[in-house]
Amino acid sequence: MINLLLAGLLLFGIGCSKDEPEKEEDSAINGNWVVKAISISGELTNIGAPPDNASYSNISITIPDTTLGSINGNTFMNQIWVSFEIKEHKHISFKDYGGSRCAEDSWGIAFADHIRSTIKKFDVSNSELHLIDSLDNTVILFIDGLNKN
């Protein structure tokens, strides 16, 4: 009798359990990121040494721990900022890109162009942040700014 009662309670518990949809686990995008490569003419190209007249030693950004906010950072030549929003399925959008307005080098121009118009989503793996276009190509590759490889 007790076994029958326990079996009934178990079946009732299973039948009434709330099936929660699996939550997509987005990788953490927040942190300090340094550009390792940028797509130039369709080819992901490693960033070289900064130009002689550079104001900064790298191209980097800091992303806050939020899904809607402002990213701050720098190209080789300028301080930059851009508003962003993270959406479902690792989609990301950018708007209101701005900078300190010194003449950019080719790396800074390519970076700004991708941020303004090309990037649709992101992925984070192995301490790398990939900003990805609509064809699923990485157009900007960052490495963790705290653990530069």
CATH architecture label name = Beta Barrel
N-to-C CA distance? 66 Å
| Inertia-based shape | globular
Main sheet record: 9 strands, antiparallel
Tell me the structural class. Answer: alpha+beta
Structural domains: how many = 1
Quick one: how many beta strands? 9
- Roughly what is the average pLDDT, rounded to an integer? 86
For the record, the CATH class is: Mainly Beta
Radius of gyration: 22 Å
Task: Give the helix tally.
Answer: 2
Fraction of residues in β-strands: 35-45%
Low-pLDDT sequence parts: 17-26
CATH topology: Lipocalin
How is this structure best described in words?
- It is a single chain.
- The chain has about 150 residues and is of the alpha+beta class.
- It has a single domain (about 25-145), classed as Lipocalin (Beta Barrel).
- About 20% of the residues lie in helices and about 40% in strands.
- The chain is built from two helices and nine strands.
- Strands 1, 2, 3, 4, 5, 6, 7, 8 and 9 form a nine-stranded antiparallel β-sheet that branches.
- A hairpin with a 2-residue loop joins strand 7 and strand 8.
- It is globular, with a radius of gyration of 22 Å.
- The termini are far apart.
- Mean pLDDT is about 85; it is low at about 15-25.
